[in-house]
Specification:
Elements (H helix, E strand, L loop, with lengths): L2 E4 L3 H12 L5 E3 L11 E5 L10 H9 L7 E9 L4 E14 L6 H6 L6 E2 L6 H5 L4 E4 L4 H7 L2 E15 L6 E5 L9 E6 L4 E9 L9 H16 L4 E16 L3 E2 L2 E3 L15 H15 L5 H4 L1 H18 L3 H11 L2 H8 L5 H8 L9
Parallel strand pairs: 1-2, 1-7, 2-6, 4-9, 7-14
Antiparallel strand pairs: 3-5, 4-5, 8-11, 8-12, 9-10, 10-11, 13-14
Helix pairs in contact: 1-7, 9-12
The structure holds flavin-adenine dinucleotide.
């Protein structure tokens, strides 16, 4: 068996590590000149959306022998709407860093890989199929999958973010649900040290959202964050992602080609969490290749989570700012607080079931 992996990101590297454990040495082809050679940004794992997995770091280590470390635990989350605010406390999740940083998640995976990585690769999957028995498409780019097979694109998103310098509590994150700064989307602050954080906003590119000017939304958001945390944040780096595709492929495997990570449909529609599903799809593709499972079956729960997450997004997208205020008020009650923080409740499954009529709603 000769396996080529296209893309040395989360799913490609997780796939390589799992193959190596079974004695299969893949060749990895990476478009960029280094692993993680892109903007630095803080990202998060929220266990409430990944249950029954409670602690993804422990799960990946114990179940799959993949060792990663978070930057920090999330102990406090402040969710703000236009006029209200909810505060959640507890073990709410984990923060990590991505991109050009020695501690980034992709860099941590890279250190566990022994296989050869061919950088600056220009190969297409068709090229690779001529010399390899199997190809793993792990390019992080769902548009690439859409060129090869049916891919249901549910939405695309515009994202704008920045690295800011200030003084932060490394365990506290902020989320804003406010249509005047992120119409039908959300904005966030994720610290990656006591002095640096990512602030970002994202909203769907629906035709009726085209009237918004990203620069003025950004200015509003930036000033609001500065005002709320009472600091003049200094922007040291910026990024913008346009038409980020959220959708899911119809066939996780087509003959001897496997689609992993975003190329499978790892990004959860509510609200862009894709890291855990990306790593898991890489592991599952490797398990299928090594006769330890069936990729189609193994990815079924991820497909269901995608659907549940889409129902949640569609429901929240209907809410105007007044209703978002009410939602935030509700989140601030003890009952909602404990539903979110109770580790044994499959929150996404429950919400997906309750909100499934919204799957039919087009926004
Ligand atoms: C701004 C932003 C914020 C996010 N925040 C979060 C968050 O907080 N929590 C969360 O869980 N998820 C988050 N996500 C989603 C998450 O980052 C992705 O779902 C995840 O990284 C996808 O992993 P992947 O393996 O598919 O792709 P990636 O990890 O992106 O890796 C793809 C690799 O393939 C390479 N490549 C591309 N094209 C080719 C080619 N033709 N040939 C060879 N190599 C190629 C790329 O250079 C890259 O190295 C966020 C995404 C963005 C954009």
């Amino acid at each position: 068996m000769k396996v080529a992996i296209m893309g040395a990101g989360l799913s490609g590297l997780a796939c390589a590590i799992t193959l190596e454990k079974q004695g299969v040495v893949p060749t990895i082809f990476e478009k960029r000149s280094k692993v993680g050679d892109r903007f630095v940004n803080g990202e998060a794992f929220l266990p409430a959306l990944n249950r029954p997995i409670k602690d993804c770091y422990a799960y990946l280590a114990e179940k799959h022998g993949i060792y990663l470390q978070p930057l920090n635990n999330i102990r406090k989350m402040i969710i703000s709407s236009e006029n209200d605010r909810a505060v959640l406390h507890g073990q709410l999740g984990f923060l990590n860093i991505r991109g050009r940083d020695e501690d980034s998640l992709e860099f941590q995976l890279y250190k566990q890989v022994k296989s050869e990585i061919i950088f600056n690769s220009q190969y297409t999957y068709e090229n690779l199929l001529q010399n390899f028995t199997h190809v793993i498409v792990a390019t992080g780019d769902a548009a690439y999958t859409a060129k090869i097979q049916d891919f249901t694109q549910d939405l695309t998103v515009t994202l704008k973010g920045a690295t800011v310098e200030g003084t932060f509590d490394k365990r506290h994150v902020g989320i804003w649900l406010d249509n005047t700064i992120a119409p039908q989307g959300y904005a966030y602050l994720l610290p990656f040290s006591e002095k640096e954080a990512t602030i970002a906003l994202g909203y769907p590119d629906y035709p009726h959202n085209q009237k918004f000017d990203i620069k003025s939304l950004w200015n509003k958001f930036y000033h609001r964050v500065c005002k709320e945390i009472e600091q003049e944040l200094r922007i040291t780096d910026q990024f913008e992602v346009t038409r980020y595709i959220i959708g899911i492929c119809s066939a996780p495997r087509l003959a001897n080609t496997f689609f992993t990570g975003n190329c499978f449909g790892a990004i959860m529609p509510a609200y862009g969490f894709g890291q855990l599903a990306a790593i898991l799809t890489g592991i599952y593709a490797a398990q299928d290749l090594c006769g330890l499972g069936n990729y189609f079956e193994l990815t079924k729960p991820l497909r269901q989570s995608y659907k549940n997450s889409l129902a949640l997004r569609r429901a929240v997208e209907q809410l105007d700012n007044h209703k978002l205020d009410l939602l935030v008020k509700l989140i601030n009650t003890n009952l909602a607080n404990s539903l979110i923080t109770t580790p044994n409740l499959n929150l996404l499954g429950f919400l997906g079931f309750v909100l499934r009529p919204y799957l039919l709603k087009r926004v």
